[in-house]
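Q: Here's a chain of 766 amino acids. Please give me its 3D structure as tokens.
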Amino acid sequence: MQKESNPPNLKRVKGWIFDIYPSAIGQMSVWIIAENGQRIRLLDEFDPRIYVSGREEDLKKLLSQLFSNKPMLSCRFVYKYIIPITNRKAKVLEVTLKDYQQKPFFVRRILQIGRHRHFQVHNCDLKPAQAYLYERDLFPLAFMEAEVEEYRLRIRLLDSVESTNYLIPSLRITRASLEINKKKRIARFSDPLKAIVLSSDEKEVLIDSGDEKDKLLQLVKKVRRLDPDILLTKGGDSFIFPYLAKRALVNNVLNEFILSREEVPLVAKYRRGRSYFSYGRTYYRSPTRRLYGRIHIDENNTFILRESGIYGLIEIARTCRVPLHRASRSSIGTSMSSLQYYQAMKDEFLIPRNKLVAEAFKSAYDLLVGDRGGFVYEPRMGIHEKVGEVDFSSMYPSLMAKYNISAETVLCDCCPDSKLRIPELDYHICEKRNGIVAKVLSFAVKKRLCYKRLAKETSNDALREVYNSRQGALKWILVTCFGYLGYRNAKFGTVDGHMGVCAFGRQALLKAAHIAEKRGFSVIHGIVDSLWLKNEEVDLNDYVSLCDEVSEEVGVPLDFGGCYKWIVFLPSKIHPNVPVLNRYYGVKEDGSIKVRGLEVRRRDTPKFVYAAQMDMIKVLSSADDSVAFVEKIPDALKVIREYRRRLLDGKVPVWDLIVTKRLSKEPENYTQKVSQLIAAEQLLKEGVEVSAGKSVRFLFTSAENRRYERRVKAKELIEEQTSADVKKYLSLLYSAASNILSPFGYSPKEVYDYVRGYQHVKLTSF
């Protein structure tokens, strides 16, 4: 493809970088939202580079073999850091390629020449847009000024990724949804289009006139006229965009069906999504259906938008230097890796194709001492009054930043006599240089703390919401960083460092607990980075003083999370005398409710059960102490009685009874007919793609039926005459009620007896 040139009449533009992607060979398309509101596409020269390491004589032989290779534009020898733990640069071969699409073939060719032994290839996994951002030291939605030349841009950055008060342009956001003339109960690609709805804050546009071809072409015209920056869909990646492309193909208008700002039609080819395993759970990701010049975000295929909103998404894109369309779909680990890769390139480290730092040998004793995770104090079961909560702010990332934990610093070659040692394991940590991971986390921790401070200081509610969204997004980066440090594929991860962070964390929590006990506090519960303390004779100032002393001693901020009027620590469902670390609920003195480990925190809880349990907790929250709490139990059980009555009277919509379960493996790999498998098999019969990691939604219709296919009904197949299994939902209701009252002697059977009027409420004394 021949290179395009920039507009000859445009010499300079000032605005925000919006979208970036490769266009012609050796060029990047850079979309700018100018200060005057114009959306402008510019072009910049950019050729991808990879690096090859090995013995110098082997590299010279390789150079002679590659000299006339067509994909290669140029090559030269440079000095870079290769192995993280070695503080010495090595001579490597830098290869500039003509076409990024040829990179995988070129890499395989080099590895084949070296028989997969003699050469290591670096920086070969970078996406072109991210490599462009790294090398140009740019980031999405950065404010900049560009001098426009014929084939390239000279960009002067007028923004900083460290800024917390940055401005962003006014983004035009439009939501798209479809109505389909379904021939069966579930829509298919062969079903004709009925209507299209485009909605924004300003207005709603309905496209329902003409034949299907007319509707598709009207959509193109309306999108072009509305010119949204962000097009939101629910299921755009998995169904809406592939369906529209298929209908355009059927109606012979695929080449005209353009929703991008650039003249690029939608791709009609169908692709399957990908299932993957992460942190003990199976997830599913639909294939990306992207637009060019505007951003398509599928709300069903984005984590960060769901958790932190549009401002959080922008913060992740800017901080981690990930284009918006990719940031919306990437896992937090992928975004954090991007931040590490940028820092590595800045520090002249090469990014390995495979992880290079192996785990140090450990004896059985070393594993026993070092591989123990976080420290916990078992909770004292039951209800407690006047309990204060303190927790370390971003404890693990703060420790990683403070103690310089990174792949190239733990057990480095240059500092065997370092005074900085990991507790218990006695591993040394580099004192001569700051690690890549430590630098990244230090930056993220400081930025998040700044946002939290700004949110407290501002009196502007809208601005407070922006700051909270941004700090919430950064929180996910910090939450993930510790687990990712020990991940087997993390390029700058280290298992030894991962164990070291746990050791520093145990040390910090123990120090905090000892200081608290010296001040007269009792530890009611403690888990990894949080403590629940009790001393009825202290006030707020005593908690603040304790936090200040611990923060000074440990070097990580300890925050006071508030004092509870009462808090209930719950036992195991299976073993009533065994406390569970993360199952509790309580009400703080400011009236806020905190719940962990109950149905209201689970994503598979039906709306009906969620509402009932939450209403029970709200009734109990009006109690000021444990005595008043017990007196409120009859009122809380009346809530369950009312919900039971509504269910028996048929006043609960079936949509409030829907259960959501994630498939942990492919349907054919299940050995038991569990509810989610039955629903998945029903969907498969209707031609719906079902894969591991996908969630299926269903209604219990006859939970104990011997014919398993009748036990549940997939949500998509529910009809007007479909009825719920009342007995099953009453069982879930009683179980939810007994879970919060179990320390007071209530089992599901006793909750059932009470709501039926068979016995009086128990009055437990304390």
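Q: Can you summarize the key feature?
A: The domain at 49-125 is CATH 3.30.70 (Alpha-Beta Plaits).
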